[in-house]
Structure formats: structure tokens, C-alpha cells
Amino acid sequence: MMEEADDGGRWDFLDRVGPDTSSCIFKLLDHPADLARAAAVSRSWRRFVIDNEFCKRLCRQLCPEVANFTSVAVVTRRPEAAAAAPGEPSRDADLRARETDHAVYCRLGGALVSAKTSTEDCILNCVAASSTDNFPQETVDNTLEPEERVYGHSSYWSSAGQDDPDVPESLIYRLSSDLCLVDEIRIRPFRAYFQPDNPIYSSRAVRIRMGHSMLPPGTESFVSDENENLKAMADENYTWTYTSPEFPENVLQTFKLPRPALCIGGIVKFELLGRIQKQATDDRYYICICHAQVMGRPLSSDLMVNISNPADYSILKYLPGASNVTGEDILNNDGSDSTEWHSLVSRYWQMRHLAGTMRNHMLGPEQRNLLLGPVQFVDEDDYMNIEEYMNIHMDGFMDM
Q1: Domains of the chain (ranges plus CATH)?
Q2: What is the SS3 assignment for 92?
Q3: Torsion-angle region of residue 197: left (phi > 0), alpha (psi -120 to 50) or beta?
Q4: pLDDT tens for residues 242-258?
Q5: The pTM is what?
Q6: Apex CA 136: angle with CA 185 and CA 397, to 5°?
Q7: What gap in Å lies between CA 54 and CA 338, rounded to an integer?
């Protein structure tokens, strides 16, 4: 703060203690709101916070996956608002770039802190399983059902049988947002009540990977009753930005991550390592999962990653005002919105809305695949509002 000097003037705290000591003090601020308040004290304090990238440093301290972002960008709703001043000196351009970094990371820090306050199941759909014993009756899609019995039948995914107990299996899921802060994994192994001694077909251990798909936009597919989607298991289809430690599994169901981890890209892979239980009828090892959940919180809709080019997932994008956008706003776009802003917000809104729709109406795999096709929003002349749009696309599914 400013202090009274001997000659009646005022001292700036930063000048009084020097930049090195000031930096050590500012690094002790461990909440984004504290840095925001510090930057509001004076112009010199704001410049000190911006020039030393304290907000970026704090974000990486809160969540190390943030280091995967190589750059940030502000995407405005109106194209003309994003235009840079013609003939802008390089010094001013550098200042604007630092201020942009500060604004984006300040917003990200606030989102990371608020995302820790509550959790929900973030799984939107099943992408693939490394094997299935009896497809589609034992499809991985069964792991989305919260109940152990559906329509009078046991609901679970089963791997193919193996003679070697060390053969692993993997399950891949798509989350409800491209940016989710995840803090807990829940897995319920299947207990075969119809077999002697009611064996539990768990894996020996579980490991989690999170990242994004490298497939071209619009080509991602999901498990359905007709398609096991095994091609989606190939490692070259994904970039993993987080890998958890191995968690021993038997009857345990909840695995708390060592710290909340940011999933950049909305893909989670469950690695089921090793087998415990043999099936008596064929003397082979199996892994069976009844239910799976990824507990966390999608970040705010004004923070996104690039969806048009998988190679650009390292660019964090801030869309001011996107949090207040509704589905009707998207449908009623008159063409004045910038293409990138509209595309990013549309995708976020669609995925979140579909997540709620599937939970409310228990849609099956075919209906999920239909609704999760390429993002294509209709014009307002075709449908009056988003509820009517969704009802038309789900015609015939609501009575399941």
C-alpha cells in the first residue's frame, strides 16, 4: 500500500521493499481473488501483477495440467471488437498480450477454485471398450446405468475371457465438457449373484488417463447396439495430459485423485490392470464393471479449447459473456456473432444440454449417437426454440 513519507509525499510499497521481496510476498497469495484485489490497488501494483504473470503461476500451482496451455486468446462475440488497432506499436502490442494473459488466467483461476465447491457425474457417453465378452448384451454402455438390474436383467460390462491374469482392459468415455475439473472416480465391479459363491469380477488395479481426441472434428463415434467401436481404442487417436497413480481395486468403489485434475479435451480412459476372478464354466479370467462415474465439475462456458483443430487444444480461449448465453440466443443468431465464438459456445451448450436430457430421459445408445453428431444448430425460422428442436430430434424416444 501507499505509506506517508518523511517529506509529506507517499511511498509505494513496491518501491519501498524492492521487486525481489515484493515478488516473494505476492507469491504467497494463494487465491485468485487475492491477486485480483492486489491488481486493483494501484496502476503500479496492477503492472507488477501482470508483468510477473502471477495469475498464470497460481493457476499452474492450483492445477499443473494448466501448463499444457501454450497460449491463450480472447474470443469476442462481435468480430469488430477483436480487431487490433492499425499500426499499433510493438510495445503496445506486447502490453496488450500480457494484459490478455492476465485476464484469461485470472478468469481460469476463479473457475478452478469455484469448480471445487461441488461435483457431479461428468460422463456424457461411452466411446469404446477394449473387448466385450457378449456384445451387445454386455456392452460398456451398461456402465452408465446406475442400477444393477434393468428391465429384470443384470446390467454390466464384461471383458472377453483371458487365460493370462495380467492382460489389461480399457474403457473410454466422453465427458460433458471439453474442460472438466475431476477429483474422483467411482467404479462398481460386478458381483455375479447367479454364480456359485457370488464372485466379484474386479480388476487388480485401476489407472486413469485424461486428454483429448486427435480424430478430425465430426468423425468421433460412440458405442451403439450395432457398433462396438473398437477402432476408437487405438492410442494414436488420443493425447493424454494427465495420468493418475494406480489404485488397488477389489470391492472398493471410490478413488479420490491425489488432487483435482483438469481434463483438457473431455476424454477419460479407465485402465483396468490385472484380473482376479476366474469364471468356473470356462476357467478363464474376466473383468466386469456394473457402473462407472467421473466426478467433477465442467468449467464455465466462457472458458473453452479449440474444437476445429485437435492440434490446437493447447490454446485456452476466453469468451467474455458466454456464461449468460441461452440455447435460444444460439438459435436466434442473426449472423452478427463471430464464427468461432458461436461454434465454441454452441458446442458447450449442446453437450451440457444433452447430458441433462440423457439423465432425465434415460436415452439409449442409438439415441445418444443421434444427438451427439456434428454440431449443427437450426435457424430460428425452422424451430421457435431449443426445447422444440430437442423434442423433434427425440421424437419416439421419450416412451422408452
Answers
A1: 12-115 (no CATH), 120-298 (2.60.120.260), 303-393 (no CATH)
A2: helix
A3: left
A4: 999 999 865 558 899 99
A5: 0.83
A6: 85
A7: 31
- Reading the block at residue 373, the C-alpha cell is 453428431
Q: In one letter, which amino acid is 182? A: V
For 327, list phi and psi in degrees, rounded to 5: -60, -35
Q: Provide the 8-state DSSP code for 94.
A: H
Cα dihedral: 7, 13, 15, 16 (round 10): 70
Residues whose CB is less than 8 angstroms from the CB of residue 277 and which lie 6 or more positions away in sequence, other chains included: 199, 200, 201, 202, 285, 286
Give the CA distances from residue 110 to residues 32, 103, 166, 256, in Å, rounded to whole numbers and listed in that order: 6, 11, 43, 22
Residue indicated by cell numbers 468449467 = 299
Q: Are 298 and 176 in contact (CB under 8 A)?
A: yes
Between β-strands 315-318 and 71-74, what pairing exists: parallel, antiparallel or unpaired? parallel
Is the pLDDT at 373 greater than 60? The verdict is no
Average pLDDT, the chain: 82
Q: Cell numbers at residue 167, please?
A: 492382460
Are 200 and 278 in contact, with CB atoms under 8 Å apart? no
| Residues sharing a CB contact under 8 Å with residue 65, sequence separation 6 or more, in sequence order | 241, 242, 261, 262, 263, 264
β-pairing, 277-279 with 153-154?
unpaired
Q: Rounded to a whole number, what is the largest CA-CA distance in the chain?
A: 93
